[in-house]
Amino acid sequence: MNVIYSLFIRNLRDYTRDNIRLLVITLTPFGFIYVLSSIFKNQFASYSLSYLIAGVSIATVFNTSLNVASAVIDDIGSGFLKEILVSPISRLQVILGYILTGSTIATVQGFLIYLISMFTYLGFEKWHTMILVFFSMVMVSLVYSTLGILLAVTVKNFQTYQVVEQTVVIPLIFLSGAYLPISIFPSFLQYISYLNPMSYTTMFFRGIVLEETMTNAEMVNLGIALDINGFILTPLMSGLIVFLYGVLFMILAIRSFQKANFTSPQLSRKKRN
Asked: Which end of the chain, N or C, is less packed with Cβ atoms under 10 Å?
């Protein structure tokens, strides 16, 4: 446990030292809210502003959680990860330290955005909504921090990760319905969205934030439930799907981390020379 805590504190300090990155990550979601709110007012009057803010908040949690990948890749490149793994520390403890860091940062940033938005745009009727929002963000951040570890171990190179982020990660956000309703997408993109774990994450989180008692038909029309040949996939079921994705990511990440060779290619070349 001391190893996990030490890695958590060390990674947290490294992340918070970059003030510009913290500022950009915090302010960017509000830019999305400002721009997209005008589109929603003009084009999607049936969707409330709460619908948009819920999507932007959970997309922030997703994106920030994946940033743990860049920390792992930096540590591979510097040789830090190789050095700590030659000590009597289990790789499981190391991976849990990174996941805890990514989850904590993502939850704090996502919840901060939600709180600020709540006091400016939103309100809530049920006292337990804030608790559910917080714990749902914790679960989502744990799931995608694990995915970030899996990506980092797979690519091991920051330039490659940037390509992966541009071609895979960003489309996952836009195809999830976080910013614009899935119902306006072309049919083939809608089918792709149904394979996207972020789509279920968004539906699950919106179901909590909107805190409304609706019929299945109303939830389907609002885009927080799916009608699959008469079977209604509710927000609660979407949350279960996200949890199962998290279990899958964790299994794959642990297996990849256990087998990986974390010797930096740059350091290996220097030793040869």
From this structure: C
Q: Flag whether pLDDT at 262 surpasses 60.
A: yes
Report the chain's mean pLDDT, rounded to a whole number.
80
Distance CA 57, CA 53 (A): 6
Phi, psi at residue 228, to the nearest 5°? -110, 95
Q: Note the pLDDT tens digit of each residue in 243-256.
A: 999 999 999 999 98
Question: Cα dist. 184→146, 187, 193 in Å?
Answer: 31, 9, 12
Q: 228 has which bridge partners?
A: 231
167 to 160, 172, 228: CA distances (angstroms)? 11, 9, 28
Name the more confident of 174 and 262: 174
Would you say how long the chain is, in residues? 273
- Global pTM? 0.84
Q: What is the 3-state secondary structure (H, E, C) of the chain?
A: CHHHHHHHHHHHHHHHCCHHHHHHHHHHHHHHHHHHHHHHHHHCCCCCHHHHHHHHHHHHHHHHHHCHHHHHHHHHHHCHHHHHHCCCCCHHHHHHHHHHHHHHHHHHHHHHHHHHHHHHCCCCCCCCHHHHHHHHHHHHHHHHHHHHHHHHHHHCCHHHHHHHHHHHHHHHHHCCCCCCCHHHCCHHHHHHHCCCHHHHHHHHHHHHHHCCCCCHHHHHHHCCCEEECCEEECHHHHHHHHHHHHHHHHHHHHHHHHHCCCCCHHHHHHHHC
Distance from chain centroid for Cα 90? 26
Domain ranges of the chain: 2-259
